[in-house]
Each structure stands twice: as structure tokens, then as C-alpha cells.
Amino acid sequence: MLFALNDASEEPRYRNLSFNAGTAAAYGLTKEQALQAITLNAAQILGIADKTGSIEKGKDANIIITDGDILDMKTSNVQFAFIQGREVSLENKQTQLYNRYQYKYHIK
User: Fold this and answer.
1) Cα of 90 vs its chain's centroid, Å
2) Is 30 within 8 Å of 68 (Cβ atoms)?
3) Are 34 and 25 in contact (CB under 8 A)?
4) Which of 10, 37, 63, 92 could be stapled to 5 by a disulfide with Cβ–Cβ 3.0 to 4.6 Å?
């Protein structure tokens, strides 16, 4: 049976999708099934699996790289993100404030 996971919550805007997949893995899916439920399965259901959803030649290179388990909220820290093969800046207002106050209070 083909299925996908979704995070329809308006607040986090899909930021917790991988952690929802991790929760599904904790309740019975294998980690591979959980990851596939938010990548390839979703692409197949949407009819775009020929363009995205898995890492294959000719598909969009939409990839994130973490320093931990992508399905684990405690160990996952996104280091790099690529959309269609182009690196995307991970800097935002929160990272700017974090760096600003580290400098201001001599934490670094």
C-alpha cells in the first residue's frame, strides 16, 4: 500500500515533517519506510516521481545534509540544503540574532 506522511500544521510550516516520520518509525515503521513516506512515496502520489523524491540521475537534486539522524529531533542539525542542486542559505532572523547575541555577550 502506497502512503505518505504530511504535516498540515500552519505554525511550523513543514519543519517538523522529518520528526513526524521519526515518530512513525518509533511506532512501527522502519526508518527506511518512514523516510520514503516523506520523499519518494509523496512524489509518487503527487505524480512527480520522475522529477523528485529519490536521488537519481536526471532528477532535481533536492537534498539536505545533517550532522545527525534526520528523523531524530535531538540529533538532527541541518548543515546544508540544496534545491535543484543549488545551495540554499540557512541563515534567517533567528540565526542572525543568535550570532549577534553571542558576539554581544562574548559567548564565542
Assistant:
1) 12
2) no
3) yes
4) 37
CB-facing half-sphere around the CA of 44: CA atoms within 13 A = 12
The domain locations on the chain are 17-104
The pTM for the full model equals 0.79
**Each residue's pLDDT expressed in tens, for the chain with a length of 108 residues:** 999 999 877 777 677 899 999 999 999 999 999 999 999 999 999 999 999 999 999 999 899 999 999 999 999 999 999 999 999 999 999 999 999 999 889 886
Count other C-beta atoms under 10 Å from residue 15's C-beta. 11
DSSP assignment string, 5-41: -----TTTTTTTHHHHHHHHHHTT--HHHHHHHTTHH
Query: How distant is the alpha carbon of residue 1 from its chain centre?
Result: 23
Q: Which three cell numbers stand for residue 98?
A: 543568535
